[in-house]
Amino acid sequence: MLLCLDVGNSQIFGGLFVDDELKLQFRRQSQLRSSSDELGVFFRSVLRENGVEHDQISGVAICCVVPDLLYSLRACCQKYFSLEPIVLRPGVRTGLKIRYQDPKEVGADRIADAVGATVLFPDKNVIVVDFGTATTLCATTRTKEFLGGNILPGVRLSMEALAERTAQLPAVEILPPDHAIGRNTIESIQSGLYWSNVGMVREIVSRITEEHFADDPPLVIGTGGFAQLFNREALFDEVVPDLILTGLREIVRLNS
To answer: Which CATH class is domain 2-87?
Structure first.
């Protein structure tokens, strides 16, 4: 059994693969000062609640964009699973040709998304839109060239910035609005957050397609916590919530 961990700025998203089938998914808040013991107890508890004992885990793969947590995560795997995890970082085989000016700058989450997309949609140009703490758009060619993409504040981060940096605007629940025009402050914020992201995705996807895929339009894949929020707008050809876990599973295979 393979335990895959996507460690983001807001959450740890975990999944358990039995062979090639994802049997279990879970989430936990990311906390910078989490100790290896806190993490180990949590992971063991989640597994045990789902009928899996720690000694059944044969491998752990980690994709982490929070460097301060990596030491605790590695120590947790060593202490609680007696395993050295595969950590997605420069030097790990991914099967991608990274066309970034400095490949070491590319976030592990973006690489895992791209690998997952090439596994699920082979021989296709793809644009992955990942709605996490930051929203990222990344383009990968059918020949597995990672071209790069875009990074911008995520939906929740934008809302929190409004609430924290203004005197009278409240934090709101993030919901798809019924109308483009809000009739009160809360509706106005919700509508602004929603439609700005819809417009952003459409515009950036259009420009990337025109610049790089004019003769061979890409599949657009939505993933991340807020991807489902935009389902009704037909922004995506596919929504794959566990795309990054699929990428991690493939990276383990490539490095075995």
So the answer is: alpha beta
Residue matched to tokens 């989640």: 46
Q: 109 an active-site residue?
A: yes
Give the model confidence (pLDDT) of 49-64 as tens digits.
999 999 999 999 999 9
**Catalytic pick among 20, 68, 102, 109:** 109
Query: Which pTM does this prediction carry?
Result: 0.94
| H/E stretch holding 75 | helix 67-81
Rounded to whole angstroms, the Cα distance separating 229 from 232 reads 8
Architecture of the CATH domain 97-248: 2-Layer Sandwich (3.30)
Which tens digit of pLDDT belongs to each residue from 108-145?
A: 999 999 999 999 999 999 999 999 999 999 999 999 99
Tokens of 206: 């259009």
Retrieve residue 198's tokens: 């819809």
